[in-house]
Amino acid sequence: MNLSPKAIRFLIQAINVQQERFTEQLQSANVSEDDAADISNDAMYLNEIKKSLQEHHDGLIQAARPANT
């Protein structure tokens, strides 16, 4: 997949929103132990995706900078 830095930033922002939702769900008194485990696992997986996207974004930005000569 070939994404622009702007597209990657949008994805990272969307991930941040979902991470906030996961945190809210985990803080809810109505969440079962099984659901909490699922949410925690999903949150960890989503965080790894975010890290990967951020690294790719940083690489694109670095590659776009002119080399110092």
TrEMBL record:
Source species, domain of life: Bacteria
The protein's name: Uncharacterized protein
Lineage start: Bacteria, Pseudomonadati, Bacteroidota, Cytophagia, Cytophagales
